[in-house]
Amino acid sequence: MFTLALRSLRFRVGAFAASFLSTLLGATVLMSFASMLDTAAGDHVDAASEETLGTMATVVGGWGLLLVVFAVSSTLTLAVRQRAQEMALLKSVGATPAQLRRMVVGEALVVSTSAALLAVAPAMLGGRGLLAVLKETGQVNEEIDYAFGATGLSMGLGITFAAAVLAAFLGARRATAMRARDALTDAQLANPPMGLARRIGAVLLLLVGASQGVVTMTVMNGEGSDAMQTAGTASITFALGLALLAPLLVRTVGAVLTAPLRWFAGTSGYLTAHNVRRRTQQLANALMPVILFTGISFGTLYMQAVENDATDAAGLTKSTEDKNIELLNFVVIGMIALFACIMLINTLVATTTFRTREFGQQRLVGATPGQVLGTVGLEGLVLACSGIGFGSLAGLVTLIPFTIARTDRVVPDVGPAMYGGIVAVALLVTLASCVLTARRSLRTPAMEVVSAA
Amino acid sequence: MFRQHEEQPARHPEALRLVSVRKVYGSGARAADAQQSTRAAQAENQVTALDGVSLSLPAGSFTAVMGPSGSGKSTLLQCAAGLDQPSSGVVVVDGAELVGGSETELTKFRRQRIGFVFQQFNLLPTLTVLQNVTLPLRLAGRRVDRQAAVRVLEEVGLGERLGYRPAELSGGQQQRVAIARALVTNPRVLFGDEPTGALDTRSARIVLDLLRRAVRDYGQTVVMVTHDPVAASYADSVLFLADGRLAGRLERPTAEAVAERMAHLGDEVLAAPAPGQSYGGSGGPWQPVNQGV
After folding, report:
1. For residues A182 and A161, what is the distance between their CA atoms, to the nearest angstrom?
2. Is pTM beyond 0.80 here?
3. B159 to chain A, closest Cα gap in Å
4. CB of B69 within 8 Å of any CB in chain A?
5. Which of A107, A231, A301, B147 allows an S-S link to A402, with CB 3.0 to 4.6 Å?
6. Quick check: B107 contacting A, CB < 8 Å?
């Protein structure tokens, strides 16, 4: 099975590119920060510097583990699911589910090991850069020398490895449990109702997020930068709650937009309206990362901007701890945003590729390539705009309470440029992933596409 | 009703004409992908699917195309229907020559002239029966006459299933939806690529009866590829294809006669006219079949 795993890797480089890339990025960030522990063990390190370096390594390490598991499992699950036919074939020639699981885990091990090893060099550069930033802002002693040693290496490799294996087990379990026929035919159209656990979880997250917002406005009002603790998590929690509700949100958007799409966007609008209503599950999977990306980056970046303005207004200079928090905010948000983007691209590329046959059918009925791309683009636009809308809502759960607590205003005095940037990235990533993938799938003649399945 | 005669512009008496159509696969870009792109390897990779096929079918005829696997019958259909472009030769549908161009141009050509029914139905899973049938009109930017679409669906016996989704229908019902979808645009030629290939005997008979009725009652031109002698016997005439060349024809076929002819097709190939020459006995152009219909 391991030989088979190696062979399937050799011939399916594209399918594993997303897993590889997210692992590579995850391992790079992890090791850059983990090497702070090695650095802290060196000479000229005073107690305060040691604490700063330790915080950097552990906070980012924890978030990194979570994100790598999340990203790798989602990319790997999709890579495995796209091979449902191959899995069915292997089953039909006598492979047991256990053997298939071993194959998938084997693939994950090869991908994650090579990605983690490749990450060592960029991680050393990243760690050096991080230390330079810490020195420049006076957060650590100028005398400290950078070190990349056993701790950084083992922490980076260990976490990446553990995350990949965990993710592979999760992905393989789902893939091998799936019956081949279901995977190939109607499964893609099934809109299973949301489970009770998911509904309850979503409502709880929304309530917790909202109450963190309320606490920020009331209890934390006038407490200074401490308000960031509750305010920062508010948008993350609220965005996660909305992400869990994604199928419901897609249905709502579909119901609201059906009439305008049909009236104003012609045939493409007509097809888009149908797809939004019938492909709830796929769209929900893509909507989640857009909400998380928009909500968390919008909330946190603006919170930090308000905080900086408030500190300046009070005529204070930042303490080392303030600087630590700011840097950590940016790093964690950057990681979340990056992984959300990878997940988004991966989900969209996979689901759009999966629809190659459907595009072929549309073309055979008389759709020009332009009409197919128009429909895909319109769907992407609906997806991106809904995600941006709901994500912005989540961001406001952080931003408004924090502004009230910190400045006695309701709307912060920060320009819209950053928000514009966030919106532009979300739109660009979504549209480019959908349209470019669809365009590639249009290169194959329609007859070939349709008869291949 | 299969169509509304009052909206019809005059039809060309010749629904479909092919002149020396050749189709060669495996040249150029694809062979370049191979590791050895030497000229010899390239020649070896080339497959001549159609080797100079010429034929002419009058409007209102029902023709079956038969031949063993790999004889080029699906390629013939795809080239004639504008789904694929011949390597050389001329395809004329309803008096208009199919000129090679972008996919968009080919699509627009097909929209106005050609209906296609596939073995695997190819209905869009997200749309209902009625929405599937009206889709070609929407895509072509034509007025969607809901009543006309419903009438066509009633004609194929699915007037009660307008709101169903393809997955909720049997194979035979799905193929009837596909036929309604192909007929709703009023095509000059309706092509069928093994339209009964995925159906049980009973459903296949219903589908074939529908096609024959479209020809008899409404003057529709139908060209159908099949490997089933019984299906071919529903046509007015059968064209036999072997190794990419026309290898005979049969008027008013019976299933037995077709099966008999298929069994001896190999012998005929050996005695067939040289490549590039049109089939028709004395070397003249292929005579229109079924002039009387």
Report:
1. 32
2. no
3. 21
4. no
5. A231
6. yes
